[in-house]
Amino acid sequence: MIHQTVLEKDPSKVPRRGTRRVDWIETALAPLKLRLSKAKYANLVSAIAVCTGMEAVLVLRDIRGLTATQAIQVSQWLVQAMLREAPPAGKSRGIEPR
What we know:
61% of the residues lie in helices and 0% in strands. The protein is mainly alpha-helical. Helix 2 packs across helix 3 (38-50) and helix 4 crosses helix 5. The longest helix is centred in the last third of the chain and has 17 residues, at 68-84.
């Protein structure tokens, strides 16, 4: 399934895996949804989805050699940095999502 995901040029043809991660991220970010533009909110959800879950743990623990506590601290720091870069709608900062 991962092989198919990586090679498929049309994302609508890629089988979707469970959306639990996105669901809990959107629940956590619900208070921000009305304060951010639609594009910034979607970008923030996607960015947080990238830095959470097993993929992030593998990179931080296996490749970077961090302890479990250090991996959690880095993940928290990263999410906080992303939240600072997502200003309310109308206030531009950083790279705009496509």
